[in-house]
Amino acid sequence: GTHIHYDFCKYGTCRAVSIEADRPVPLNMDGEIVFTKQADFEIVPKACRLILPKTVSAVWQEKSVRSNVTV
After folding, report:
1. Quick check: 22 and 46 in contact, CB under 8 A?
2. pTM for the complete prediction?
3. 24 pairs with which residues across the strands?
4. Given this model, what pLDDT does residue 68 score?
5. pLDDT grade for 65, boundaries at 50, 70 and 90
6. How big is the chain by its Cα radius of gyration, in Å?
7. Within 10 Å of residue 39's Cβ, how many Cβ atoms?
């Protein structure tokens, strides 16, 4: 999106990130809203398995960008 061009937005890549706030802020955790002052996120390779319809699965398997996704 275009939001990465705003001065208050920082853009980068990493395998893990920790976010801290002065006060509890809302965080959407799998559809549930929780309020927290700290959140830690980590990319865990091959930790997510997806069950997709055959039509979607075929498209994903054709995309080289998603070659690390097991379907």
Report:
1. no
2. 0.52
3. none
4. 52
5. very low
6. 17
7. 14
